């Protein structure tokens, strides 16, 4: 189970500082969406607002970006980005009732869908707030191609005999398959879904750097279901495995993400 009550000021500030990876793949998603000046955009799960502020600059003064995120500390940092056309508020993908039907040209969820236990409700909400023909963009971890770190953790878990559920040890708990996402998008009222998986290669200075990144990205959930003794054993074994992946640039790990774009149907 993902908890929304493990976040802290330190985790939120760390995320704002270390989230270049999400920001950079988010820019690819925004490119796929072909956003133009003057458009009205909703960033669902906006976090600390780096991508929302970037999109606010793209849509310019005649456009507007709204962001929602359930974590108040992150919403606060998003509003500190100080763009007159970007405002973030506390809210969840499951309930976008603070927005009227048809009030956006574009809705996007960057690295957010894999945190949602149920997908149809949030996608129906995204459809409701989009104008007919509006665009939805999603980047999400792929169930058919888990991140390399999650495969490493699964190996560590089974070799140590750790009984905690593998899913909740990782950093992208509720992954979807491309096929499931396609059918859920159609069911939620979207048309012409286009999906592709993109692979990203990350480098980390050391194991602490890996853990700090995934802890901040998961708002405190990464490895949180282990008791302290188990966590220490897992971290030691993880460090040994990660060192085996060291390249000249650092510990090398690949991530794979589904990128999906679809149109709001009639
Ligand atoms: C990895 S961060 C991505 C943040 C931002 N989209 C970015 O690109 O940097 C995941 C975000 O999903 C948010 N989140 C988790 N559960 C959510 C929900 N039910 N509805 C909306 N956002 C949610 C978290 O609060 C967190 O800010």
Question: What is the CATH superfamily label of the domain at 9-143 and 174-203 and 253-264?
Answer: Vaccinia Virus protein VP39
What class would the helix/strand composition place it in? alpha/beta
Query: Which compounds are bound in this model?
Result: S-adenosylmethionine
Mean pLDDT: 95
* Total of helices: 10
Pfam family, one: Methyltransf_31
Keywords: Methyltransferase, Transferase
InterPro entries: Methyltranfer_dom, SAM-dependent_MTases_sf
Protein name: Methyltransferase
Protein described:
- With 266 residues, this protein is an alpha/beta fold.
- The chain has a domain at 9-143 and 174-203 and 253-264: 3-Layer(aba) Sandwich (Rossmann fold), CATH 3.40.50.
- The chain is built from 10 helices and 8 strands.
- It has helices spanning 9-18, 20-33, 50-59, 72-79, 120-129, 148-160, 166-169, 178-187, 207-217, 228-243; strands spanning 40-44, 64-69, 86-90, 104-110, 130-141, 190-204, 246-247, 250-264.
- Strands 1, 2, 3, 4, 5, 6, 7 and 8 form an 8-stranded mixed β-sheet that branches.
- β4 (104-110), α5 and β5 (130-141) form a beta-alpha-beta unit.
- α1 packs across α9, α2 (20-33) packs parallel to α3 (50-59) and α6 (148-160) crosses α10.
- The radius of gyration is 18 Å and the shape is globular.
- The model has no long low-confidence stretch (mean pLDDT 95).
- S-adenosylmethionine binds next to α2 and α3.
- InterPro entries: Methyltranfer_dom, SAM-dependent_MTases_sf.
- Keywords: Methyltransferase, Transferase.
- It comes from Sorangium cellulosum (strain So ce56) (Polyangium cellulosum (strain So ce56)).
